Amino acid sequence: MTNSTDGTPAWTAIGDVLKVGDAMVFKGVIAGTATSPGAFTKAANCGDTYRVSTAGYVNGQKVEAGDLFICTADGTVAATSSNYSTVQNT
C-alpha cells in the first residue's frame, strides 16, 4: 500500500502523523530490578512507552508492575530518567 500523492509506503506516512502528535508508541515490556539504578531503557523519542512487568527500579526511578514508563522528549539517550514520566497502575 502506498501514499497516492507521492508513492511513499503508507506506513511511513502513518508513522509521520503519529510523530507529529507525539502519540504514545508501545515499545515493549521492561522489568524493574531490586536495586537502583535498575533496568535501563534504550534511546527513545517522545511518546515511546514501556509497560513495567516487575516492580523495582528502571532508570533509577521506583516503579511497580503495570506502570507505564513514557518518554517525554525526542532524542533521549539510553538510561535517562529525567525525560520519562511514570504513570502508576493503581
**What's the N-to-C terminus distance?**
41 Å
Structural class by sheet pairing and helices: mainly beta
Biggest β-sheet strands, sense, barrel: 4 strands, mixed
Question: What's the rounded overall pLDDT mean?
Answer: 82
Task: Supply Rg.
Answer: 15 Å
Shape: elongated
Number of strands: 6
Number of individual domains: 1
The percentage of residues in β strands lies in 25-35%
In the sheet with the most strands, the strands line up as: 1-2-5-6
Low-confidence stretches: none
Q: What series of H and E elements makes up the topology?
A: HEEEEEE
Count, helices? 1
Portion in helices: 10-25%
Write a structural description.
The protein is mainly β and 90 residues long. The protein has one domain (24-87). Helix content is 12%, strand content 31%. It has one helix at residues 10-20; strands spanning 25-31, 48-54, 56-58, 61-63, 68-71, 84-87. The strands form two sheets. Strands 1-2-5-6 form a four-stranded mixed beta sheet, with no helix packed on it. Strand 3 and strand 4 (61-63) form a beta hairpin. The protein starts with 9 loop residues before the first helix and ends with a strand. The model has no long low-confidence stretch (mean pLDDT 82).
List the defining traits of the structure above.
single chain; 90 residues; mainly beta; four-stranded mixed sheet; two-stranded antiparallel sheet; 1 helix; 31% strand; elongated
